[in-house]
């Protein structure tokens, strides 16, 4: 009878510990999810845009923000997803991870330990404390030493061969003179002689003068190569120019900064759902009405049928939603 009563006490205590741990984890999960949701909304990022950036389903982000860890694979996945969200929102990761529950094995009470004294004594007598750890460390150290020696033996001859075969190579190249294009109507037709770029022969370099004594001693007469004259092509502008896009469609979206947009037509077909790079212009045509959702509305310029459209009137929390009819 005493054994049955002690077993029931242990069962009740373990049940109370599990219930308390679950309640504590649920409170921590809710507080962490609410914190991430508040930070995302303050940054003006739509949950769909955040899901596209992190390449995860929207349902997993919603479960994370609502504290529903039972909808996620495990606590480790939830902590990793929260860390990715923090890095995307550019906030500190450590305070957020402190709000998440830590997965740890339940501890047994004193009565449970007393109920199994024979098992504890057998476990203590079977393995000496620290013996396995010392053996594993020695084996690991010996393996690392052997691996390092094998790598040195394998790669040392290859390195010596490459260093020994590397030698300076000299090439006698003729003089090259670039002249502007003098064809009629070309941009370089009026260029003066000061614009001519002349490259001397490679034999004038000091490094080649030191490596060519044998050629001079051989007494061979080498004819000088004739100068090569090439026209200089017109200089292109270094800056990338974006051609003006004619606003032919009913909806034209211009991204002033990195943003996100989604456009669907009347039939529910998705015409656009992706990130827009800085300076990108997108013209959309489809069955009206067009449903438009834009993240970071302050970084987007919209034209409807060739006329500017003010998205601030349909913007909430920096996310604009409107229809083009």
UniProtKB/TrEMBL annotation:
<dbReference type="InterPro" id="IPR001387">
    <property type="entry name" value="Cro/C1-type_HTH"/>
</dbReference>
<dbReference type="Pfam" id="PF13413">
    <property type="entry name" value="HTH_25"/>
</dbReference>
<protein>
    <submittedName>
        <fullName>Cytoskeleton protein RodZ</fullName>
    </submittedName>
</protein>
<dbReference type="Pfam" id="PF13464">
    <property type="entry name" value="RodZ_C"/>
</dbReference>
<dbReference type="InterPro" id="IPR025194">
    <property type="entry name" value="RodZ-like_C"/>
</dbReference>
<dbReference type="InterPro" id="IPR050400">
    <property type="entry name" value="Bact_Cytoskel_RodZ"/>
</dbReference>
<feature type="domain" description="Cytoskeleton protein RodZ-like C-terminal">
    <location>
        <begin position="252"/>
        <end position="323"/>
    </location>
</feature>
<dbReference type="InterPro" id="IPR010982">
    <property type="entry name" value="Lambda_DNA-bd_dom_sf"/>
</dbReference>
<keyword id="KW-0812">Transmembrane</keyword>
<keyword id="KW-1133">Transmembrane helix</keyword>
<keyword id="KW-0472">Membrane</keyword>
<feature type="transmembrane region" description="Helical">
    <location>
        <begin position="139"/>
        <end position="159"/>
    </location>
</feature>
<dbReference type="GO" id="GO:0003677">
    <property type="term" value="F:DNA binding"/>
</dbReference>
